[in-house]
Amino acid sequence: xxxxxxxxxxxxxxxxxxxxxxxxxxxxxxxxxxxxxxxxxxxxxxxxxxxxxxxxxxxxxxxxxxxxxxxxxxxxxxxxxxxxxxxxxxxxxxxxxxxxxxxxxxxxxxxxxxxxxxxxxxxxxxxxxxxxxxxxxxxxxxxxxxxxxxxxxxxxxxxxxxxxxxxxxxxxxxxxxxxxxxxxxxxxxxxxxxxxxxxxxxxxxxxxxxxxxxxxxxxxxxxxxxxxxxxxxxxxxxxxxxxxxxxxxxxxxxxxxxxxxxxxxxxxxxxxxxxxxxxxxxxxxxxxxxxxxxxxxxxxxxxxxxxxxxxxxxxxxxxxxxxxxxxxxxxxxxxxxxxxxxxxxxxxxxxxxxxxxxxxxxxxxxxxxxxxxxxxxxxxxxxxxxxxxxxxxxxxxxxxxxxxxxxxxxxxxxxxxxxxxxxxxxxxxxxxxxxxxxxxxxxxxxxxxxxxxxxxx
Length: 457
What we know:
Layout: E1 2-6, H1 11-22, E2 26-31, H2 38-44, E3 48-51, H3 57-61, E4 65-68, H4 77-84, E5 89-91, H5 92-101, E6 106-110, H6 115-128, E7 134-136, E8 148-149, E9 157-160, E10 165-167, E11 170-173, E12 182-185, H7 199-211, E13 218-222, H8 226-233, E14 239-243, E15 252-254, E16 259-262, E17 265-269, H9 277-292, H10 297-304, E18 315-320, E19 323-328, H11 333-350, E20 356-360, H12 365-369, H13 376-380, E21 385-389, H14 398-401, E22 409-412, H15 415-425, E23 431-435, H16 443-456
Parallel strand pairs: 1-2, 1-4, 2-3, 4-5, 6-9, 6-12, 7-9, 12-13, 13-14, 19-23, 20-21, 20-23, 21-22
Antiparallel strand pairs: 7-8, 10-11, 15-16, 16-17, 18-19
Helix pairs in contact: 6-9, 6-10, 7-8, 9-10, 15-16
């Protein structure tokens, strides 16, 4: 079958493209911007790419089916031509569910935070356990050059289960298509203000996910998330295991010193290379999910002791002038706060005496809308110094939102100006934590270059 994908360079759709190619289909695709690293990965997989939305692609490619990504809206010239001609089309999640996930034990990882890291953890555990699982991760793991793999059709398939809407023609959350047998519900907060009116609307979508699960399925839910309590109170027909419970309670517990127990029975110790309580809880949920497909907690904990992490999650981009530059995807005030806490924890453990300098780009749709601007100052308070880059799409005043931080915070509307200011203040031993769910104007490379120049001056 020949498949042509609209929006192919997005993380999810790029993963779908790689899975389709691995399954033996001819795959082509287009996007508004075709650029590395996704374009390189797709071309290496033998996928032909075209930049732009020209309707001429209909005659040039003549695919059997068009897969439409959720970034493609009505008014897109290629989509309009497909609709006008009555050509067959389908959303990415629907195609994936029917062609790849059908008949497999799907392990879905959902939640506002930690999806990519937890999905990567589960996949890595199953790989090291010899299962050859399939996976689709919303990021590139440090242990592989690929974000998606078909795996053995008889092995589980691990998928990052996003609550964002499916496509222009299907406004349900993507994850309702996956019909998991094992589901991790990591946490739940208000996000995606561009499509969800309030938290209750997201809770309803999470319950739609729970409703698709079989009675012998397993829901692994965070015990300290009130929103998830409300989701499960709507009805659950599968087995339920809670994680982050108090010691001795039913479910999975984790002490501050890493002791793991299930319903009061010790199963081992967690020694995760990644710092931070949030990462440790991601690991705890991954251990629970792996147990559901036959991997012992003891084996999972041993594997996680060597877990390499995920790119763009506390990823060290380089060192210069005695400073460390770190990249993280943090896109929500809670993620910002927990990332800062995790990096601070890592600094303490490694004996780093310098400052933690936080650089933030409010870039997600929710952040650009200013929906959570009142929580920003509090989420950044634990940093020693804060720099905020407000791009042209930010229509609220970060200066006002960060005013509670006083002189500790600086706002600029130019990335090069931000780089110059940070480089001028940086001292050996400082950790520069860059947080954005986008490219942040190439700030990482620019910072390292400026710091190297400062070292030579």
